[in-house]
Amino acid sequence: MKFAKNRILMGTLGLALALSACGPATTPDPQPTPDVAAVATQAAMTVEARFTEQAAEAASTPVPTQPVPPTTTQALPTNPPAPSPTADSGGLPCLSASFIADVTIPDGMLVDPGSTFTKTWRVQNNGTCTWDSSYSLVFVSGDQMAEAGSYPLTQYVGPEQTADLSVPMTAPSTAGTYYGEWRLQTPWGGTMGFGPYDSPLSVKISTNTKGGFAIASVNYIQVRDPATGCPAKGTRYIITASVTANEAGTIRYHWDQNPDDNEPPEQGQINFAAAGTKSVTFEWLLKPDAVQDILRWVTFVVDSPERQEFGRVEFVFSCP
After folding, report:
1. d(CA 243, CA 278)
2. Which one of 174, 193, 208 terminates a domain?
3. What average pLDDT does this structure show over 96-109?
4. Are 252 and 304 within one domain?
5. Could you say which DSSP state residue 148 is in?
6. 8 Å CB contact between 164 and 119
């Protein structure tokens, strides 16, 4: 019994010693709250450091060089295409032309029946397009007298250049007066005339199968007096006709004008003692109140011994 008590006492003493060795129970300290700003700053510094490392690695690594493709240049054509007829430069049209003079066979010239001749007109290119062999003189009305109805140009005619355009012709074998009109055909299919009224180039001849006296040709000179302005006393247009006869003879003539202003035509007579040339003059007086900016014309007409008509002198009266 005593032995049992001792055993109980010894067990209680051991337990007390064990509990005293462990010490009193304590409560653990709370965990600190993380600093969000500090964490973000630390992360940014880490990323920046990583980028710095990558940049250094990239700089030390050679990058392969790609070949640059060569530059190609397309050569311009030797003969650039002609501009369209609507093309312009400084307000000027592509297609524009004026008549300068009859170089050969003035209108109304007397030629032998069945004889060959070459009609030549002097013209000027007033447009911005250059004429070449794609342009042609084409017959449009009247008496053709030429073997062909179209003759391509044989030369280049640049802007503001003049050119002599010719067509070979044959006079009819019967007596009479013959008249034909020609225009310039363009590469685009249309035709163009000359001057502000788009007038055709004309050829007019007379033949005389009976032989004998006749007027061979008439050439005109026009003068405006004064050259500019419109004085109260009027502006005179002075037309001089140089009339050439083939031999001695006498003609009766008159002047035609349009509009005629309800005035009778001037007429007269010229005597030729031999073949040669004589001149007669026509004057047209226009006051400032006359109709302006219309086309007027004057022509010399032989009435006998055989009727012959000779070209026209055209002008437009205007006051600045």
Report:
1. 5
2. 208
3. 90
4. yes
5. -
6. no
Task: Record the pTM.
Answer: 0.58
Whether residue 137 is found in the same domain as residue 160: yes
Q: Are 237 and 283 in contact (CB under 8 A)?
A: yes
Q: Which residue has better confidence, 226 or 35? A: 226
What six digits make up the tokens of 235?
Answer: 């502006």
| C-alpha span between 240 and 171 (Å, rounded) | 28
Identify whether the C-beta of residue 196 lies closer than 8 Å to the C-beta of residue 156.
Answer: no
Instruction: Tell me how crowded residue 220 is: count the other CB atoms within 10 A of its CB.
Output: 19
Confidence at residue 43, expressed as pLDDT on a 0 to 100 scale: 44
- Number of domain units in the chain: 2
* pLDDT-derived band at 123, boundaries 50, 70, 90: very high
Q: pLDDT tens-digit profile of 50-79?
A: 544 544 454 444 444 444 444 333 333 334
Domain boundary among 159, 192, 208: 208
